[in-house]
Amino acid sequence: MPKTAIVLGGTGLTGSILIKRLHLDNRYDRIKLFSRKSIAYSSPKIEEYLVDMLQLENIALDFTGDEVYCCIGTTNAKTPDKELYHTIDYGIPVATAKLCNQQGIKTFIVISALGADSKSKLFYNRTKGKMEEAVLAIEIPKTHILQPSLISGKRGEKRIGEYIFKQLMKVVNPLLIGSFKKYRSIHPEAIAYTMIWLANNTFAKKRILSDEIKEISEKHK
Predict the structure, then answer these.
(1) Residues 14-26 pLDDT 10s
(2) What is the CATH number of the domain that holds 188?
């Protein structure tokens, strides 16, 4: 029976690829996209809901489906205010997980980051770590948290520092072997593929590191 997928963060780099993959996947006949702006991609399968992402409690009536994919995330450059940053990177995924629980949705896949740690001295890593703990505490039956390293690929907006680091990683990636392999940059296509695979298959781990994401995407294609 065809399924309905709910996507938050579909206008971003990974989210946009995820939507295209879901659109081509015959297991899905509806894709509900909740975002603050429209995407440059239309299809009879896609239903767009333009909403205030900081007030997700107002969308409960429309928040019905089989699986939820959360690709929400911001950066220090885009959101220098730490309170707002926390509201986005912690608040939105946690509010989404609560909606899943409220609506009886049993599959929740969310993107976090490599190095997420609620006890970290780094604000970014600490915020992601606290988000992960809060999401897992809600106990949605099928929850998976992806922890990618630096995501490669072209973004819609310019991030000079990130661009320079990405060029550097092209040289460094082959040198990262063994336990350091997880720090290699990763393509958003691999993340999107793995998210859908996890939703449709049994996988024991809740938290999935960057090298494991890549391994799943290569092994099961």
Answers:
(1) 999 999 999 999 9
(2) 3.40.50.720
